[in-house]
Design brief:
Layout (H helix, E strand, L loop, with lengths): L1 E3 L12 E2 L4 E2 L1 E5 L4 E5 L2 E5 L4 E3 L1 H13 L2 E6 L8 E2 L1 H12 L6 E4 L2 H12 L12 E3 L4 E4 L2 E7 L8 E5 L2 E3 L21 H12 L6 E3 L15 E3 H7 L9 H12 L8 H8 L28
Parallel strand pairs: 5-8, 8-10, 10-11, 15-16
Antiparallel strand pairs: 1-4, 2-3, 4-5, 6-7, 6-9, 12-13, 13-14, 14-15, 16-17
Helix pairs in contact: 4-6
Length: 304
């Protein structure tokens, strides 16, 4: 089993950490069959110029081409609120290159709750998000990446649709846990719940100590360390800032609730949610020839 991420000293083509959004994306491969799956891919977005580009996704495509892999799945852990997904772009490009059936995009079956919620909030019609995901995973569903057995693990708390992917002795946990020095993800998004996140974290930490937990983001303090994609279950049990052994559910809920009240919204939350409920498809071109995303205004002062 091969997992591509961004170890120190590797070439740029293996650089799968996006520093603009502090996001880890992964390529998990079965070398025997040359089959691989993509997890949580990133679409580049410049909020100043409001420009979408594909540099990061194209680097991933180059890696796939260089290794001669066939992609069996594109896997999303949840509807991200901090970066745009490249799932749709990659799906189309991979299908065009191979002239084969496009690889399916999979996500937890509860995504429909968030599609309806955010579709209404941003004025996105249901015809733009119904059916955009090819696979709506049931809890504990089993899938295969070549000869590698994968299993879907429901991990609610950060969002209600959140899942992880357990492949071999590795769990790709999305935004459930972070590096032990950082703790856990926030729970203040619609449908988020600190009690659920506590139970999801304890589910992960009930695995064997040697199992690797691969995270969705890392935010290292400058100079302290570089971004690290994984830590073992044993390390989390011993030293995770928020959820190590001995932390009770009541303690965790109180800490997480107080902390979340003071957190600012993610910088790309509005753009991300509108694109991600569409599985990475961009808004349709309107009568004026533009693709448009809605960004709400905050109004200060009186007299408006």
């Amino acid at each position: 089993m091969a997992i591509y991420y961004s170890p120190p000293g590797t070439s740029p083509r293996r650089l799968l950490f996006d520093p603009q959004t502090s996001t880890w994306q992964y390529l998990v491969a079965d070398p025997a069959s040359h089959t691989a799956a993509i997890i949580d891919p990133v679409l580049d977005y410049n909020p100043t110029t409001r420009t979408v580009s594909t540099t990061t996704a194209d680097a991933l495509l180059s890696l796939i081409h260089d290794r001669g892999y066939t992609i069996s799945h594109i896997l999303e852990t949840h509807a991200h609120a901090d970066h745009l997904t490249a799932a749709f772009y990659l799906q189309r490009r991979l299908a065009a290159v191979t002239q084969e059936t496009r690889p399916p995009v999979g996500i937890g079956r509860r995504i429909g709750q968030l599609q309806s919620l955010f579709g209404e909030r941003y004025g996105v019609g249901s015809d733009e998000y119904n059916g955009v995901f090819d696979l709506l995973w049931e809890d504990d569903a089993v899938f295969w990446v070549g000869g590698l057995r994968g299993q879907v693990v429901h991990l609610p708390g950060h969002t209600p649709d959140h899942v992880g992917y357990w492949i071999g002795d590795n769990v790709f946990c999305g935004d459930s846990l972070f590096h032990p020095s950082l703790g856990t993800a926030r729970c203040d998004f619609p449908g988020g719940n600190p009690q659920d996140l506590y139970q999801s974290a304890r589910k992960l930490l009930a695995l064997q100590d040697h199992v690797k937990i691969w995270i969705g983001h890392d935010y290292p303090v400058d100079g302290e360390r570089g971004p690290e994609p994984w830590t073992t279950v044993g390390e989390h049990r011993g030293s995770n800032k928020h959820i190590r052994d001995g932390v009770t559910e009541d303690e965790f809920v109180q800490m997480r609730s107080e902390r979340d009240r003071n957190l600012a919204a993610p910088r790309l939350i509005h753009e991300s949610l509108q694109v991600n409920i569409r599985a990475g498809q961009l808004p349709r071109v309107d009568a004026a020839g533009m693709r448009t995303l809605k960004v709400p205004l905050k109004v200060q002062g009186e007299g408006w």
